[in-house]
Amino acid sequence: MSEAEAPHLTHHAMLIAWGQFAQCLGLVKQIEAIPMQQKAVEHSPQAKVLEFLVANLAGLRHLKEISLAAHPLDQDQAVVRAWGQKGWADYSGVSRTLAALSDGETEAIRKVLGQISTPFIEKEALLALKQEGRLVLDGDLSGRPVSDTSQTYPEAAFGHMNDCVRLGYQAALVSLHSPTYGRHWLSVSQHPGDTVSCTEAEPMVRRSEAILGLRPMRRVDLLCKRLEELESSQSSLREAHEQAIQSLQEAQRRAEEVRQQVAVWEQKVQESEMAYQARQRLERPFSQLAQSRAKLALYQKRQKRREAVLNQAERRLKRSERDWQAWQSEVSLLHQRLEQFEEDNRTNTAPIQAVFRLDAGFGTAENIALLIEMGYEVYSKPHGNWLAGRLEHRAKDITAWERVGENAEMVGWGALSLADFPYPLDLALERFHTGQQLREGSLIHFGPDQVASDLPAWFERYNQRQTIEAGNKEEKQVFELHHLKVRSRSGLWLQELFVAFAANFVRWATLWLSQDCANLPEGWLDPLQPHIKEQVKIGAQSFAWVSWYEQGCMLSLLLWCQG
Fold it and tell me: Which pLDDT tens digit goes with each residue over 252-303?
C-alpha cells in the first residue's frame, strides 16, 4: 500500500474515521441522491445537510461553531475529504439550507437514515431473540426546552420538562435493548411541549413495530372476553337510562304541579292584599290574608324541594347518557381493535415475544390494557392517582417488607383483580428511605415473568429502563441536543433525527473500527461500552495526521485532549 500524497493535519480525528465509515455504509451517496429544490451556488444543499450531520457528530453546541470555533469544521479539508465532499459551507449557508428544507425533503432524509439503520436493527433484533427469546423496548418522552420568552420557535408550547413548566418541544423515543451495542434508538418523533406521555403510548409502539418489522401475537382471546363482559352490561345500562328518564319525567310532573299551586296562591295573596287595602283592613294573624300567605309559603318550600329533586334527576340522566355514550364508544373502539388485531395475527408469520417498559406518565389504565392486548409483557408504574391509596391500604398491616435496593423496600401481590381494570395485574408498593423522609411508589406488571415471587428481580428489571434515561442524557450532553441549533420546523425535526442516528452511528463505527483498528484508546473497542462522550468530545476534537491511500486512510494521532 503506497501513499498517494503527503499527510494532512486534521483537528477532528474521529470525524475522519466516521466519514470513511459513512461512505462504506453508502450514507453519503444516498443523501447526495435526494432531490432538493434549493439552488446550489458553491455548495449543494445535500452537502450542507451532511455538514449538519457532521456538526452533530462533533458535538458542537451551536451551529456557528462550524465556522467560528477555535478549529473551524468548515476549514478542515481532511474532514471534507473523508466525507467525500469538495468543501464545507459557512455556518450561515447551512442555516439557510435547514430553514428552507421542505417537509418532503426532511422525510426523504429520514427514510435514508432508516434504510441505513435497518440492517443493524434487524441483526440486533434477531440476536436478542436468539439469546434472550424476546425483545426489550423502552419508551420515554423527553423535553427539549427553549427560552420561555422566545417567539421564533415554530409550534413550541409550554409543558412539563425537567420537573418544571418550560416552553419547548417533547420527543417521543423508543430504544431497543441491543446485545451488541447495549442501547439502540429505534424511533423518535417530535411534538409541541404541551404533549403528555399518556397520549403517545400507542403511536410509539406502532412506530417501533413498523421499524422492526416484528410484533407479538395480539391477545384477541383476552380482548374478546373483555368485549363480552362489556356487552353483557348493556341491559343494565339501558335499564338505568330508562329509569333515569322516568325519574326525570316524574320529577318534572311534580315540579309543574307545585309551580301551578304557587301561581294560584300568589294570585290569591295578591287579590287579598288589594281587598284589604281597599277596605283599609288590618292583617290579623289568623285572617284570610295571613292564611293565604302561609299557604303560599308552604307551596314555595315544596317548590324548592321539588326543584332540587328535578335538578338531581336531570344530573342523573346526564350521567346515564354519558355512561351510555362512553359504553357505546368503548364497544365501538374495541370492535375496531379486535378487527385490526385479528388481521394483524393473520399477517404475522413470525410472531415474537416482547417487553415494553414505560414510566408512570404512560401508565394509564387504558394504555396498560392496550399494550396487554397488543401482546406485550408490560413493566410500568400507575399514572397519576389511579391506584393511590389502594395499595397503601392493602399493605397497612404488612410488617415484613423485602429489601430490593440500598434504600428501597417492596411488597408485592400477584395477579390482583381490580374493579376498574379488565385483566389481573401484578402490583407492588415501593418505599424509599431518603434521610428522614420516606417516599413511596408503585409498580405494575403483566406477563409470564413471575415477578411477585422475586421482588428484587422485579425492581431491577423495571429500573433497567434507566438505559433510556441515560440515552436522553447522552443526547443532550454529548450531542448537545439541549441546544436547538435551528429555528425552522424542518431543521428542528432534522436535528432530532440526526442526534438519534448519530448515537447509533458512533456505536456501529466502534464495532467497525474494533475489527480493523487495534490501536484505538483502551476501552473504545467494546461496542457495549463505547465511551461515546470521550469519542465525541475528545476524539472528534483531537489532532491527527491523515495519510491517504488508494484503499482508504491512516490516522496518526498527535494528542488526545483531556481538557
Answer: 999 999 999 999 998 988 888 888 888 888 878 888 888 888 888 999 999 9
User: What is the rounded distance in angstroms from the CA atom of residue 95 to the CA atom of residue 52?
Assistant: 9
Q: Is the pLDDT of residue 46 over 90?
A: yes
Q: Which fold has domain 228-342?
A: Helix Hairpins (1.10.287)
pLDDT of residue 562: 39
Rounded Cα gap, residues 322 and 239, in angstroms: 14
Q: Give 172's strand partners.
A: 141, 189
- 332 neighbors 252 (Cβ within 8 angstroms): no
What pLDDT, on a 0 to 100 scale, did the predictor assign at position 236?
87
Question: 407-431: buried (b, 16+ CB within 10 Å) or exposed (e) per residue?
Answer: ebbbbbeeeeeeeebbbebbbbbbb
Residue with cell 418505599: 431
Residue 175 bridge partners (DSSP)? 138, 185
Provide the residue ranges of all domains of the chain, joining segments of one domain with +: 8-108+481-559, 228-342, 359-464
Q: Are strands 135-146 and 354-357 parallel, antiparallel or unpaired?
A: parallel
What is the grid cell recorded at 259?
309551580
What are the start-end ranges of the H helices in 26-88? 27-32, 45-57, 65-68, 77-82
Spatial separation of the C-alpha atoms in residues 315 and 9, rounded to whole Å: 80
CA–CA distance, 72 with 6 (Å, rounded to integer)? 22
Identity of residue 285: P
> What are 340-362's pLDDT values in tens digits?
999 999 999 999 999 999 999 99
DSSP single-letter state for residue 153:
S
pLDDT at 3: 55
In the numeric block, which cell numbers belong to residue 68?
Answer: 467560528
